[in-house]
Specification:
Elements lengths: L2 E5 L4 H17 L4 E6 L4 H7 L3 E4 L9 H7 L1 H17 L3 E4 L6 H9 L4 E5 L6 H6 L5 E4 L13 E3 L6 H4 L13 E5 L6 H16 L3 E5 L5 H10 L7 E2 L5 H7 L2 E5 L2 H10 L3 E4 L3
Parallel strand pairs: 1-2, 1-4, 2-3, 4-5, 5-6, 6-7, 8-9, 8-11, 9-10, 11-12
Amino acid sequence: MKRIILTTGGTGGHVFPALAVAHEIKDRFPECEILFLGGKGPEREMVERAGIAFKGHPAKSVLGGGIKKVFGSLWVVAAMFMALKEIASFKPDVVIGFGGYAGFCPVLAAWILGVPTAIHEQNSVPGVTNRILGKVVKRIFASFEDRNESFPAEKTVVVGNPVRKEIMNSGPNAKQIADPKKVLVFGGSQGAAAINDAIIDGLAKLREAGITLRHQTGKADFEKVRKAYAENGMETGKVSPFIHDMGEAYAEASLVVCRAGASTVFEVAAAGKPAIFIPFP
């Protein structure tokens, strides 16, 4: 394998499994050149920080619009031209999408150009992007059994959800010993206002109980949460918009309080941590 394109975007739930696959590919095929095609969201920073080449193209959510709205969106036209040009130039051996609207056009463009394609679906119920692409790709990798028959059974393989090695290494056999009173709090890569507000409401009692927190707030609520920690006499140094070293964060925590997203659930299981999962919203 000489060249591969991975594509997705929007949230860490899509991006982190793609990065886990990218690192495994580099371990097995050190000479393989990897290009990541994404949108204008947080994926650029995540991918470039991991040392992988990134190129962005237009992508917008059409939540609730279904297939017709995807094809009727103007951004699809521009994104398709860019994807066709990029794939024709890069000449990948395969293009793999991990869901999200940023991953739609690159996979479809690869199929048009005759490049082998595959998708990975993290959730038990696929989103619009993967439901469409599942009709044309050669292989579908699923985290869960396809009980709703969303994909053709003959090309669907259940593989679970790829987890980054630093998180796998933070599990029960990790050298770092967890602090029995340290709790890791996060609401996904972009934060969750409901979780942030609940923690703020409980800061006084958490301080009285001697609990220390490491809290990923997301960019939108960072200043509000940091200020609340300071006002309640809690350490503000462990409050951040985004935690880059999640392996370390999992390793030092004795409990995780987080969203119940598919990728997060797999990460917590891999890290071997007890957790309080909070469904959306």
